[in-house]
User: Fold this.
Amino acid sequence: MRIPANIKKYFWDTDPDNLKLRGDSYYIISRLLEYGNVKAIKWLLKIYPRRTIKITAKKSRNISGRTKAFWGNIRA
Assistant:
């Protein structure tokens, strides 16, 4: 599975076609949690388990405190 065309815009600093959903999950999740719109988040929730998203939100240095607090309240 690839990153959908409507979500590629969030990866402005890299070629989204070269991202691997499993190998680059930390980067993909962090970027979409911080900058993604509703469609991007819905896609993210289909691709990755909530537990993985919650752990990434907690550990990522690329996510703001506000975003971490929000995702910290989501049930895993």
